[in-house]
Design a protein that fits this description.
55 residues; mainly alpha; 3 helices; 0% strand; extended
Length: 55
């Protein structure tokens, strides 16, 4: 089984973050993911929707 990315302590700390910080972190993760897939996010979502029926 794969090790969890975050510990319980990490999650408690992140829960205490302000909404603004949570939004900034989320935006950063989305941009990193977008660059990793070289803008192929729409293609990925279309394929995922086809497999699962929702996006």
């Amino acid at each position: 089984m794969k090790e969890p990315k975050y510990t319980k302590d990490d999650l408690k700390i992140m829960q205490a973050w302000s909404l603004e910080r949570k939004i900034r972190v989320t935006q950063t993760k989305i941009m990193e993911w977008y660059m990793t897939f070289e803008g192929g996010v729409l293609y990925f979502l279309q394929r995922w929707q086809g497999q699962h029926g929702t996006a």
